[in-house]
Amino acid sequence: MSPESMPHNKDKVEIALCALEHAVGLNLPTYATAQSAGMDLTAALEEALELGPGERALVPTGLSIALPAGFEAQIRPRSGLAINHGVTVLNTPGTIDADYRGEIKVILINHGKDPFTIERGMRIAQMVVERFETVSWNVVDSLEDSERGEGGFGSTGTE
Q1: Can you give the pTM of this predicted structure?
Q2: Architecture of the structural domain at 13-131
Q3: Residue 62 to residue 104: CA distance in whole angstroms
Q4: Could you read off the pLDDT of 16-29 as tens digits, one per residue?
Q5: Whose CB has fewer CB within 10 Å in the chain, the N or C terminal residue?
């Protein structure tokens, strides 16, 4: 992707990325379009992996990253795999913490009726890098009222 087609963001964050030996020849995470939020991750498999209906597998990407403090990377499904094959990321979104330095691996599950083959270099998930806030708890005896109150689990939008 050329610099002109990169997503326009005034606060670009530079992230160290290490391509492991089994990722040689594979694409680095890339944005498919200039307005994409997620970067595609590819499978760094030595040989194809068949995922039967109901089966799950931990699929390597061959990449490790060093996120800055205050950032996380979220691993999310690819909609095309989900709608066309029933294949999705099991722990959605998966979180890569800023202090993790191991290989990024994606837990895929086949919810479809047919076996699905994952090939080397196949786009298997997307990664979104986000800032996050840490919190400290202010323990109180009660909370102030709100319009919603304790209503939940489908309580909004009903008459």
Answers
A1: 0.84
A2: Distorted Sandwich (2.70)
A3: 7
A4: 999 999 999 999 99
A5: C
